[in-house]
């Protein structure tokens, strides 16, 4: 059979990214231009600034991806692009670029769901991983527990009712003065803290065993900070970080393991920016070992937003016959 080489583009949030992916799982290049330094000034992603920066960077990033892959546009078999969910203005830049290339070079256009991309990141370093498996997607915008039934076919078991896991990390980090993005900073600071110093609540929802809620633990952290300030008690940021992280990680692990058992899944993967979290990886690894479940997680570079994962997802969509027309549009709240 012929090789399928895909140029993939990702611009849903604050990373401008392009990659060249061969046969779904072989990454020929993976270029990411991050805007984090720019958005740090504002304590979070500013949509208008993100869109403008994507426009400035996208051509350069694509050229670099092709060059590193030792390829030109004419070598591509298709163009894959994230068309949702995400920031509409940011998404539009990638979608417009992908449509232009696809039109000019007469290449099939394959729109990709961003979350399907995050999940697909697991295929890249685990050639043996195939559906069905359970996947916990934890990013700055999403928290989903899904069964990957087939390539590109999902059954959602649970989701967050309020904040996404990464959002909670970012908000708590901001409250204890760590800056943006907070997840990696809490991860690091937690190593110096006592995770049992403070008993923050674990977000559980009655009658929805796989759903999540992180606004409660976030409020509890804010209340704790207020109490310390009012009573003149010392604020130990490392203990707060470690205790908050324990509360979040325990819930993520418990829900994922009970879903794996209930649905007889012997493979469990994690995906999204928060999947880089050390405590989550260790906690999930241990729980999976105890329950005879194979545990999969991507390298940190494939956990955060990148285009390689979009190329992998686009490949499996391409194989299924997914083709988009010139009317492909950005869909900010695209459902999985
Ligand atoms: O997947 P991602 O790059 O972008 C979205 O699609 O949202 O995820 C970014 C999120 C941010 O909230 C960031 O704080 C969080 O992932 N994050 C982490 C870690 N690294 C990134 N959260 C906890 N621990 C980490 N090590
Ligand atoms: Zn993402």
Automatic annotation (TrEMBL):
Main location: cytoplasm
GO BP, sorted A to Z: tRNA threonylcarbamoyladenosine modification
InterPro entries: ATPase_NBD (IPR043129), Gcp-like_dom (IPR000905), KAE1/TsaD (IPR017861), TsaD (IPR022450)
Cellular component GO terms, alphabetical: cytoplasm
Catalytic activity: L-threonylcarbamoyladenylate + adenosine(37) in tRNA = N(6)-L-threonylcarbamoyladenosine(37) in tRNA + AMP + H(+)
Cofactor binding mode and count: Binds 1 Fe(2+) ion per subunit.
Residue positions binding substrate: 137-141, 170, 183, 187, 277
Residues annotated for Fe cation binding in this entry: 114, 118, 305
SUPFAM superfamilies: Actin-like ATPase domain
One Pfam entry name: TsaD
Localization (cell): Cytoplasm
Class in the EC hierarchy, top level: transferase
Name by which UniProt lists this protein: tRNA N6-adenosine threonylcarbamoyltransferase
Gene Ontology molecular-function annotations: iron ion binding; tRNA N(6)-L-threonylcarbamoyladenine synthase activity
NCBIfam families for this protein: gcp_kae1, T6A_TsaD_YgjD
EC number(s) stated in the UniProt entry for this protein: 2.3.1.234
Keywords: Acyltransferase, Cytoplasm, Iron, Metal-binding, Transferase, tRNA processing
Protein function: Required for the formation of a threonylcarbamoyl group on adenosine at position 37 (t(6)A37) in tRNAs that read codons beginning with adenine. Is involved in the transfer of the threonylcarbamoyl moiety of threonylcarbamoyl-AMP (TC-AMP) to the N6 group of A37, together with TsaE and TsaB. TsaD likely plays a direct catalytic role in this reaction.
Source organism: Lactonifactor longoviformis DSM 17459
Similarity field: Belongs to the KAE1 / TsaD family.
Coiled-coil region(s): none
């Amino acid at each position: 059979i012929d090789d399928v080489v895909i140029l993939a583009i990702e611009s849903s949030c604050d990373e401008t990214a392009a990659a060249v992916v061969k046969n779904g799982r072989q990454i020929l290049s993976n270029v990411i231009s991050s805007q984090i330094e720019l958005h740090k000034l504002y304590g979070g992603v500013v949509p208008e600034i993100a869109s403008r920066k994507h426009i400035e960077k996208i051509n350069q990033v694509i050229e670099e991806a092709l060059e590193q892959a030792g390829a030109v546009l004419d070598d591509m078999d298709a163009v894959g692009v994230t068309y949702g969910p995400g920031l509409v203005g940011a998404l539009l830049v990638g979608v417009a670029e992908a449509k232009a290339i696809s039109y000019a070079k007469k290449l099939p256009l394959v729109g990709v769901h961003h979350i399907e991309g995050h999940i697909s990141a697991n295929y890249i370093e685990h050639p043996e991983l195939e559906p069905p498996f359970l996947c916990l997607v934890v990013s700055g915008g999403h928290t989903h527990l899904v069964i990957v039934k087939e390539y590109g076919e999902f059954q959602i078991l649970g989701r967050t009712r309020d904040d996404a896991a990464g959002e909670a990390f970012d908000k708590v980090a901001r409250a204890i003065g760590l800056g943006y993005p907070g997840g990696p900073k809490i991860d690091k600071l937690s190593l110096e803290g006592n995770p049992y110093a403070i008993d923050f609540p674990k977000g559980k929802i009655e009658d929805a065993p796989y759903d999540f809620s992180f606004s409660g633990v976030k409020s509890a952290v804010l209340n704790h900070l207020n109490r310390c300030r009012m009573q003149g008690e010392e604020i130990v940021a490392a203990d707060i970080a470690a205790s908050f992280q324990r509360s979040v990680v325990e819930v993520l692990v418990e829900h994922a393991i009970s879903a794996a058992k209930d649905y007889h899944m012997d493979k469990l993967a994690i995906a999204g920016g928060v999947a880089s979290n050390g405590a989550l990886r260790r906690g999930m690894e241990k729980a999976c070992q105890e329950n005879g479940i194979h545990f999969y997680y991507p390298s940190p570079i494939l956990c955060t937003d990148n285009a390689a994962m979009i190329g992998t997802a686009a490949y499996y969509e391409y194989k299924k016959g997914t083709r988009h027309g010139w009317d492909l549009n950005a869909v900010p709240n695209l459902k999985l």
